Amino acid sequence: QVQLVESGGGLVQAGGSLRLSCVASGRTFTYTFMGWFRRAPGKEREFVAAISRSGGNTYYGDSVKGRFTISRDNAKNTVYLQMNSLKPEDTAVYYCAATQLYTPTMNTADFNSWGQGTQVTVSS
């Protein structure tokens, strides 16, 4: 099992930026893709972004393409989500997740380790 701890959430005005971090510990070598998901009030959990183990392949949800960037530093066991041009509709709890699959996936059910989440609130 791997433990994931997110940080970096907060309150920001529309058009602003935030960078989320997710530090992994435990059996990190068993996990391949890392991802970010979010859940807005009254909505289902939504895929935001994912990154391969090497960092060479990244994937994004349609609603964040061109605004968010996922990256990872394997030496620090950390995954980042740089969020620019934030909109009020980006307001949600953001979760870091890890999967042991060797193929890219955006499916929540394929990720078997989750962090506790960090709140991001974007004011208009």
Secondary structure layout:
Elements (H helix, E strand, L loop, with lengths): L1 E6 L2 E4 L4 E9 L7 E6 L6 E6 L6 E3 L7 E6 L4 E6 L8 E7 L14 E2 L3 E6 L1
Parallel strand pairs: 2-11
Antiparallel strand pairs: 1-3, 3-8, 4-5, 4-9, 5-6, 7-8, 9-10, 9-11
Structure overview:
With 124 residues, this protein is mostly beta strands. 0% of the residues lie in helices and 49% in strands. The strands form 2 sheets. Strands 2, 4, 5, 6, 9, 10 and 11 form a 7-stranded mixed β-sheet that branches. A 4-stranded antiparallel β-sheet has the order 1-3-8-7, with no helix packed on it. Strand 7 and strand 8 form a beta hairpin. The termini are far apart. The mean pLDDT is 95.
